[in-house]
Amino acid sequence: MQNLTLILLLAAMAGGAFYAGRRRSFAVVGGPAHGAQLHSLPGYYGYFTLIWCLLPALGLFFVWVLLEPKVIVALIVQSLPDPQRMVSEGELNLLVNNIRNLAAGDAISGDADAVMRDAAERYNEYLAASRRVLATLTLGIAGLGGAIALRRIRPEFRARNRVEQVVLYLLIAASSIAILTTIGIVLSVLFEAIRFFREVSLTEFLFGLTWSPQTAIRADQVGSSGSFGAVPLFTGTLLITTIAMVVAVPVGLMTAIYLAEYSSSRVRAVAKPLLEILAGIPTVVYGFFAALTVAPWVRTAGEAIGLEVASESALAAGLVMGIMIIPLVSSLSDDAIHAVPTAMRDGALGLGSTRSETMIKVILPAALPGIVGGILLAVSRAIGETMIVVMAAGLAANLTANPFEAVTTVTVQIVTLLVGDQEFDSAKTLAAFALGLVLFVVTLCLNVIGLMFVRKYREQYE
Amino acid sequence: MAGMTEMKITEEEAMPEARSADSAVEPARHRPMGATARKAVERVTELGEQTVGEVRCENPFIVTENVDVYYGDNHAIQNVTLEIGKSEVIALIGPSGCGKSTYLRCLNRMNDSIESARVTGKIALDGQDIYGSDLDPVALRARVGMVFQKPNPFPKSIYDNVAYGPRIHGLAADRAELDDIVHTSLDRAGLLKEVKDRMDEPGTGLSGGQQQRLCIARTIAVNPEVILMDEPCSALDPIATARIEDLIDELSQDYAIVIVTHSMQQAARVSKRVAYFHLGRLVEVDETDKIFTNPRHKLTEDYITGRIG
Predict the structure, then answer these.
(1) What is the pLDDT of residue A406?
(2) What is the average pLDDT score of chain A?
(3) Predicted ipTM?
(4) B152 vs A: CB within 8 A
(5) In the sheet that B89-93 helps form, which strands lie side by side, from edge to edge?
(6) CATH of the domain at B76
(7) A343 vs B150, B156, B169: nearest CB
């Protein structure tokens, strides 16, 4: 039986279990008229039966499906004659793959000999047997679970509490997925970074002034020794982020002040969604806007006043990134300003302050922690931003503070290190993970500080 | 605002009922629009256009003639004529949503910040039309101070809270003068003794009653001519309330005070005259004693005896 059919069957059984449970709950009190004697609403008895029918069966199903291939392969390998079994792990894997492909009727590498054909046949047999047992077991457990649940239904049985308990576990499981994923990502980056630091020392990476990750494959190649001093990347990131924040913070903040305090409700109704559209533009679109429109414009403008500007200048990338971040800054600041109680505003106005005095002397100071928190979140967004800088900032790892020169950032280098065919044990590739780790640590710190500010601010008025 | 407040209250009344009901068994029911409210509408049609009692006073300082306030389509205040004398305390009473707060907020143009609000009629402060085109609402609000329902000290130090007004209006030439204003204002608000050793601590750290007195100190620091109080004690306990009432009594020597209150006892204790509002109309105005012992209007009587509320 196909697994899909099995799942559909299970779903049908679950639906049946729900109705059976509901009906049974009416039966135990003697009809829908006496529904009030039940502890819980009839539906809860239905869900209770459904859960008993579905959860154990599904659990078994997934465990079985996870273990099935491993067990079958182990059995096949066991049954292979000794000469085939006594080979290296890689060759054995290849052999097993071939057997599987043969079993599925796909093309295989090399010729199929009798042993392999035997093995393929056995593989198919095992698979079919496994499926049969799985189907029987699953449906059996589903039926059994449903029956047990049905028998437990009594008027005083607390079905609602049981169902809510299960829902609670589901919620916990759902929320742990995100957390576990984060932990998984951190660990994988961490281990690869540790491998990198075995080859390149931490101090060279953090304090070295030259970044040139091209390691030679042969010893006689030019530039055979890669150099992994990441300082130019950090300064490049810092430079572009600074430019972005210089654009985004004043513009975003002023937008927020205008929208929150001065604009009429009609302007606000139009401007807010428009700003949100700005936030919704894919960064890759910003990227070619930066590379094709802003960068040449910056270059011509610079030349007009006698400055030498690289065609991929930090300024162009920073400007566009700043524009991208405006909505983030303005909407977080807007929230912070709105969270200042109207009573503050009234109090200040009632004392005869003008609107701008109210804003500058009362509302902004009160909203400041929230605004700072928002800005920190925006900084971490800017540091992690990739597409714009990939397209507009260039690849030259210059150690410079001149915004008219080309610089490169951490994220750009991660992209270039990992794009294309790679061997995953060279220092060049592993450097990407070390950079990723640095990026992660920095943005994490910024986010934590930002959220701390935001939280502290919230406490003030509650 | 009048209509909105009323709606809000109806909702709030309905909510706990819906929450406490065993939601699984019983669907939350909406309570139909209160029958009492509808009855009240009928009653108002009984009363004439004319306000009962004495709307005029000797030596009037604030004069309002035929004031109407609209919030969008909602006619919140209808044709209110009232005079408020110099250094008298007048209490505005009435059921929720009757427009007394709206009327109060007309007197220092705080309604300006509400986009849909529209005020017609004439309001004059000391003979000057406050809705006139040549009048700056900012300057007006320095002359007509306001104390709000919930204490709303700024998230600044106690000193800076009181110094805020004098600073923005440039009332003090130097630091010493500013210190003097702050100390005098705190002293007059009866708060100086309690806070003089912690002037640098945040005003939000004080107790509710202290915060409200801080707000009063902040208001008198700009040296206004009138003080508007919008239910200044409704968030306070009885002891703090008593202190504020004593304070109102003292301040009434120098300021005209208009106080909105839900407590008739408070109105009786602090005010010289009482104005009773009902559904946007000014029903009756008179000396406090007369209103509470011998109300002339049926609605006033119903309210002060607790039949409407």
Answers:
(1) 84
(2) 86
(3) 0.77
(4) yes
(5) B52-53, B281-287, B273-278, B89-93, B256-260, B226-230, B144-147
(6) 3.40.50.300
(7) B150
